Amino acid sequence: MNVLMFPGQGAQAVGMGRELHDAFPVARRTFEEADDVLGYALSEVCFAGPADRLTQTDVCQPALVAVSVAAWRVAAEHGLTGDLVMGHSLGEYSALVAAGAIGFDAALRLVAERGAAMQAAADARPGAMAAVLGAGDDEVAELCARARDVWPANFNCHGQVVVSGTVDGIDRLLRLVAEAGGRATRLQVAGAFHSPLMAPAADRLAPALAAWEPSAPEVPFLSTTTAEREGPERMRAILLDQLTAPVRFGAAVSRALDLGATRFVELGPGRVLSGLVKRVRRDAVTVQIGAPGDLGVLVEG
Asked: Which residues contact 65 (CB under 8 A, 6 or more apart)?
């Protein structure tokens, strides 16, 4: 049972997607479509940067969807099929494209608005995020409560929880972790994602999501917001909730394993999700496809 996984913000890197674009017509068409839909040369930002432009939230999000969908389309032409799809936060949009629940053009428009809304919310009320390592979920939640104005944002796997909050709140949390002898690292991000500080972004995105009519997925969609399989009647609410709710990636991986997952295929730039899957179950089979040289695993698998 193949689980197709799609990365979220943070996986971006200058040069991503270029090899796929140069090697495969379907990838070339994917980037051309993205450029046309968005009205600017997104492909050039992916391929050549500059890095500060690519990391801007309003550019980064459609860029990651474009690269992930290009990788999925190439892999599908080489025989990859999925039995379940899932994505980390933003990656849920790519997953829904692969599931057939949303068209690529509609996904690009939504994530462009999503990115702009999140950037505006971060500019209006600056926030920060940090990764707490080696502590349990409940322990991190208690630290957040003590720090004040900090909330769990990503339950990625056992021993890795990302937290989100005000700048002062994250400073307090880092001190509390250090005093307890723990480890935490501040992340280089533009705002307090997956926290109540993103409520203005949710308000702005709501009309765009309300105007979208999801299709019934051809491949079951496993949400990392709820860690359950979800149908089209829930998709708009989930994509809205994910802005302020934590990502439950570890729980979603466990659910996929319970459903019979035998291989996790990460499509797009980076290998972060594959590493997290291994932290959930060490012997899980993972595959990453983001460049032409990765396609051999489809034959081997």
From this structure: 90, 93, 94, 97, 107, 108, 111
Could you say which of 21, 43, 88, 89 is catalytic? 89
Please tell me the distance from the alpha carbon of residue 17 to that of residue 294, in angstroms, as a whole number.
13
Query: The CATH number of the domain where 278 resides is what?
Result: 3.40.366.10
The answer to whether the peptide bond before residue 7 is cis (omega within 30 degrees of 0) is no
DSSP state of 80: -
Please say if 158 is a catalytic residue: no
| Backbone φ, ψ for residue 100 (5° rounding) | 85, 15
Question: In this structure, are residues 211 and 217 in contact, taking their beta carbons and an 8 Å threshold?
Answer: no
Same domain, 227 and 167: no
The catalytic residue among 21, 43, 194, 223 is 194
Active-site residue, 94 included: no
Q: Specify whether 253 is located in the same domain as 118.
A: yes
- In this structure, is residue 191 part of a structural domain? no
Give the residues across from 160 on adjacent strands.
Answer: 133, 157
pLDDT tens track for 104-162: 999 999 999 999 999 999 999 999 999 999 989 999 999 999 999 999 999 998 888 99
Asked if 225 and 242 count as a contact pair (C-beta separation under 8 A), the reply is: yes
- The pLDDT assigned to 298 comes to 73
- 259 pLDDT tier (thresholds 50, 70, 90): very high
Same domain as 269, residue 257? yes
- pTM higher than the cut 0.90: yes
Cα(67)–Cα(274) distance, rounded to whole angstroms?
A: 17
Q: Which residues contact 76 (CB under 8 A, 6 or more apart)?
A: none
As a whole number, the mean pLDDT across the chain is 95
